[in-house]
Amino acid sequence: MTYIAAENRYQSIPYRRTGRSGLLLPALSLGLWHNFGDSTPIDTQRALLRTAFDLGINHFDLANNYGPPYGSAEINFGRLLREDFKHYRDELIISSKAGWDMWPGPYGQGGGSRKYVLASLDQSLQRLGLD
User: What is the per-residue pLDDT across 2-41, written as a single tens digit (0 to 9) for each?
Assistant: First the structure.
């Protein structure tokens, strides 16, 4: 069944300017840490996203280690983005973070090296299906 967002979704929550960027974010964002891993049924995740978006929440926060297992929250969110929210992509703000041990070797052990951050960004974009 095709998802159709609530027409009044932007009347439910105030939006605030973010720094000097001009970007408006909802007063409440949705973090997808433990509630979007593989241990949570995809239908529960779908219902959570749809309800949040219908209430005006359009900022979704992820990270490379969100799950469990690591990375699964980005994969699951990416799936729902393709299946339910592709027509609303321009309305969504999707953030992710880096800094957690993710793969073997000196560049996968977190920290703030440029190489680690860029590799983590590329991997997050791939998991989200936004690359």
Answer: 999 999 999 999 999 999 999 999 999 999 998 999 999 9
Residue ranges covered by each domain of the chain: 9-128
Token representation of residue 77: 């969110």
Q: Are 49 and 84 in contact (CB under 8 A)?
A: yes
Is 7 in contact with 35 (CB distance < 8 Å)?
no
Nearest to residue 10, comparing CAs of 63, 59, 82? 59
For residue 117, pLDDT over 90 is answered with: no
Give residue 88's identity as a one-letter amino acid code: Y
Q: For residues 110 and 119, give the distance between their C-alpha atoms in angstroms, rounded to a whole number.
A: 11
Q: Take residue 16 and report the two structure tokens written for it.
A: 């605030």
Query: Which pTM value belongs to this model?
Result: 0.92
DSSP secondary structure letter of residue 20: T
Q: Are 77 and 32 in contact (CB under 8 A)?
A: yes
Residue 101: beta bridge partners?
A: 109
Cis status of the peptide bond prior to 69, with omega within 30 of 0:
yes
CATH architecture classification, 9-128: Alpha-Beta Barrel (3.20)
